[in-house]
Amino acid sequence: MQGEVAVVWWLLAAVAVIYGTWVFNRLVADRNLVAQAFADIDVQLKRRADLVPRLVEVVRGYAAYERATLEAVVALRAQAQQAAAADAPKGTHAGRLAAEARLGGALARVLLLQENYPQLKADATFLDLSARLVEVEDSLQYARRFYNGAVKQFATRLQSFPELIVARLFAFRAPAFFETDDRGNVEVTL
Q: Could you read off the pLDDT of 32-60 as tens digits, one per residue?
């Protein structure tokens, strides 16, 4: 009888270890999916950051009176780069995502300057840069949706029983969602 009880306990322990390993591996896969999704966002943010100086220079030539707007964009780009550097060692993205959201709003204001400066609307370089920026923003929107979906799935698993036991045991943490300012669509006329 005692031998049968011992076998049952060993079987239960083996099932618990196997199940715990399976849950752990799912959580690792979810964490890696979130990291991959953020890497996709990172690519788009770098593409956008590369366009900013060129766009500012083109606009500066036409919109001399908009110095404050252009300086704000340059400053926000620098803040986003600093936030990215500060967040990287910590493995978090919250500071960078907030800075990038502010930069996105400022870029939308720069693109709207063409309404006040018709000659800017006719500049081929501005048209090319603004079209590329719109393309990057569209790609960024898709990447952000994928990232937020991956974060949602990961966070749901971290909060679900019995996964939450394994998650707490191994200190899994869900990253922040990528949120943007609550603003309407920006109309860009090309």
A: 999 999 999 889 988 988 888 888 888 87
Rounded to the nearest 5 degrees, what angle is found at the Cα of 142, between the Cα atoms of 43 and 133? 60
Rg for the chain (alpha carbons), in Å? 24
User: Model's pTM, two decimal places?
Assistant: 0.73
- Residue pair 110/55 in contact by the 8 Å Cβ criterion: yes
Q: Which of 151, 148, 143, 144 is nearest to 172 (CA)?
A: 151
Q: How far apart are CA 108 and CA 43, in angstroms?
A: 19
The residue among 174, 168, 166, 169 whose CA lies nearest residue 21 is 166
3-state SS, one letter per residue, for 12-53: HHHHHHHHHHHHHHHHHHHHHHHHHHHHHHHHHHHHHHHHHH
Q: Can you state the percent helix, strand and coil of the chain, rounding each to 5?
A: 85, 0, 15
